[in-house]
Amino acid sequence: MRWSRALIPTHKEDPSHAETVSHKLMLRAGLIRRLTSGVYNYLPLGWRVVRKVEAIVREEMDRIGCQELLMPVISPSELWQETGRWNVYGKELWRVHDRNGREFALGPTHEEVITDIVRNEVRSYRQLPFTLYQIQTKFRDEIRPRFGVVRAREFIMKDAYSFHENDDSLSVTYDAMYDAYCRIFDRCELDYRPVEAATGAIGGSASHEFMVLCDTGESEVIVCECGYAATDERAEGLIATVMPPEEPLSAEPVDTPGMKTIEDVSLFLGMEPWRLIKTIVYVADGEPVVALIRGDRDVNEEKLAGLLGASMIEAAPPAVVEKVTGAPVGFAGPIGLSGVKLMVDNSVEPLVNAVVGGNAVDVHIRNVTPGRDFSVDGYCDIARIGKGDLCCKCGKTLDSFRGIEVSQVFKLGTKYSDSMKATFLNENGKAMPFVMGCYGLGVSRTVAAIIEQHSDEYGIMWPMSVAPFEVEILAVKFKNEKVREASEQLYDELRAAGMDVLLDDRHDSPGVKFKDADLIGVPVRVTIGERGLKEGTLEIKMRRTGEQRDVAIEEATAEIVKIVEEARA
RNA sequence: CGGGGCGUGGCGCAGCCCGGUUAGCGCGCCUGCUUUGGGAGCAGGAAGUCGGAGGUUCGAAUCCUCUCGCCCCGACCA
Fold first, then answer.
1. What integer is the mean pLDDT of A348-362?
2. CATH class of the A469-567 domain in this structure
3. Which of A131, A242, A412, A526 is found 20 to 30 A from A25 (Cα to Cα)?
4. What was the ipTM of the complex prediction?
5. Nucleotides of B under 7 A from a protein CB
C-alpha cells in the first residue's frame, strides 16, 4: 500500500474523550472512529489488524478440527423464549422488531441458534463430537460502553460451540480449546492468565476466562502463589477471623435512631464494622432470600445465586424488605424472621456479641451470638473475596491483579439442549440431550489488549503477527529521483516476496513521516534517503527494540525478508 | 439508571461568570514559492446555523426552560 493512496488519518493530539492507552492510540493512529456510543468504524488500518487476529484464530480453530460457519445476526424471539433467556438476558439483549411487530434479538451470543441447527441436523452419536465456530459481529446493549473497543455495544467475536455424547468427550474438547486459546494469545504476544470464572448469564458447570494483564482492565483477578487464580466474581477463600475470644453476653435491643447503614451504626455504637452482621434481603428467581455476612464484607451475588441455583438475583426492593423484616430498609436482622431462606456466610460463624438489625424502626440488637440467638442451618461461602484474604486451596494470603477479559470458555452441559429438546440417539437407540461447550473470544477486544501491552510514548509497537503492515518504507524526500527509484524497487521486491509493505511516498517533511511511523507502529521501518544512498545503504530500524542498522541496498530485500519471516508467529 | 463533567470549522481548545461590531487561537486542509534524516518557512485562501428547540432582551455562543448527544465514576460482560 502506498500511504499517499491510503486512508490513514492520524492525529497529532490525543482525542479529548479517550482515557486508556489503547483507545487513544486506536483513534490517533487512524484504526477506528466512533460512530456513536459503543459503536465504531474500523478504518483500513484497524481492519487489517482485526483480519490478522482473525486469521490466527481461524488457524488455531482449524488446527483442532473446528469447522467455521456463519449464523445470522438476527434471531427470532421464539428461540430465546425456549431457553428463557428472552427474559433472563435483560436489557443487554438488543431487541428489534420487524414491520409486522414480530420480535427479534440481535445476537449477543449464539447458543440458541446453534442448538437449533444441531437439533435439526444431527441425529446420531456417530456424528459426535464436533465443534462449530463463527467470527461475527455481536450486539450487546451495554449499560455503559467504555474504553473504545474494549466494551463496545457492537463488537467482533469468535464464538465456538461443541457437541458431545458425554462429559468426558466435552472435557477433551474443552482442554483442546483451552490449549488453542493459549496458542492464539501467545501468537498475539500477550501476557495473559487463564483463570477460573463464574458462569453468569451463559450458564454451565465450569468456566475459565483468559485475562490479559492490564492495570486499566475492568476485571479483577484473585491469585495465589500456589497457582490458584479466579475472577473476583468466582474466587473462593477464607476471611481471616478478627474476633478475639469473648464471653457471650445476653442479647438486648438498643436504640439506633435513623442509623441505617453499617457505617452509621458502627460509628453510633462505637464498634468496628466487623462486629456487625450485615443482613441483606435479595430476590432470587422471584423468591425472597436473606443473606448474612460480616459487616465489613460484601456479598458476592454470583456465588449466592450459584448456591441457590437461581438464574436471576437482585437486591430486594424496599417493599419486599419491609414485608420480609417488618421494618423499613436499614434495620433488617436475622432474629425472628420466618418463612424465608437464610444464607449465612462463613465469616459470621466466629462472631460473638455482634450487632444485628432489630426488624423494627430505629432498633438494633447487640450481644447477638449466631446459633444461639437465631438458628443457622449451615454456613456457606457467599463473600466477595479479595486481596489479603486466604487461599481456599493452600491457606496463603491472596493477591490480585487487573486484567482485560479477552475470552471465556464454558462447559455448558445440557443446559441448552435440555430446554431446547436437542437430542441424539445413543448406541442403545435412546434419545439423549447433547452435552455442549461454548467458547467465546473477543477479537476486537483482543486488538485493544495488544495495544495496551505494546506501546510507548510515541505510539503502537505491533507484534509482527498482527501488524497491519510488516514493513514500512519511509522515503525521505520522495521527490528525489534516486530516493524514489530505490524506494519503488524495494517496495516491489518486498511485495513479491510476500511481505505486507507500506510505502510512505508522501511529500511531507521527514519529521511528519517519522512521527507517523512511530505512531502506527509497523515493526520494521526502512528509511531511504539521499544521505544513505550516497553510501549505497538504507537504514533498518525495529520499532520495538529501537535497534537500527545500515544495510547495503543490494542486500536489503533479503535481509528484511529474513527479519520478517523470523518474527512471524 | 444514580452521581459528575462536556457539546464552539476535521482535531485540540479559548470566549460564557459580567449579553453588545466581521466568534478567536493552535494543529490540520487548499494554492504558490522555498524547504526535506525527527511534527519546516513565507505569502495567500477555504471552512463554524456556537448540539437542537423554545424563551428573556433593542440585542444571546454568553441568561432561563426543555431536549438530544458524548465522556467519566458505580451496578453488566467477550
1. 92
2. alpha beta
3. A526
4. 0.94
5. 1, 11-13, 26-28, 35-40, 69-78
